[in-house]
Write a structure and sequence with these properties.
Elements (H helix, E strand, L loop, with lengths): L9 H28 L5 H12 L5 H8 L3 H13 L3 E6 L7 E5 L1 H22 L4 H18 L2
């Protein structure tokens, strides 16, 4: 039997709010940077390429659930990615012939790698602005952040 989490303290609540705000600003700036790149892809399509790359064979319904959008909306987005030559439909599932998974094409893989390299460069430029002491603090925060991110 697992023990329930203890109630958050006032300090935990305050830190949580600060962390949420910092992440919100960081994600907003990362999205703005992606939009400035003019890749020809929407933010959702960019996120879908990454998700398909991380989960080859994922289906349209699972993508829709993951992104919290309706299946018809997801189908249209996937169709656009297929038409652009970035995603392909895999062979039908042996257990359920109606279901086909999605995989990145070579062009889709190259696009994801380019986007990740650009995003890493963007973030590295901002981290480079920090003082050595601030970099040490950021480094020390990585492990706790990973712990927070665990389910």
């Amino acid at each position: 039997m697992t023990r329930p989490d203890p109630p958050p303290t006032a300090r935990a609540l305050a830190l949580s709010e600060d962390l949420r705000n910092a992440f919100k600003r960081l994600v907003r700036e990362m999205r703005r940077d992606v939009e400035r790149q003019d890749t020809g892809l929407s933010m959702l399509q960019t996120m879908l390429l990454a998700a398909i790359g991380e989960r080859p064979g994922i289906g349209v319904a699972a993508l829709a659930r993951m992104q919290q959008v309706r299946s018809p909306t997801m189908s249209a987005q996937v169709k656009a990615l297929v038409d652009a030559g970035l995603v392909a439909r895999a062979a039908p599932d042996a257990a359920d012939r109606r279901r086909t998974g999605l995989v990145l094409t070579e062009a889709g893989t190259a696009r994801v790698q380019a986007l990740r390299a650009h995003r890493l460069d963007w973030l590295a430029q901002r981290v480079a602005r920090l003082t050595p002491a601030q970099m040490d603090q950021l480094s020390a925060a990585i492990e706790p952040l990973n712990l927070i991110a665990r389910p």
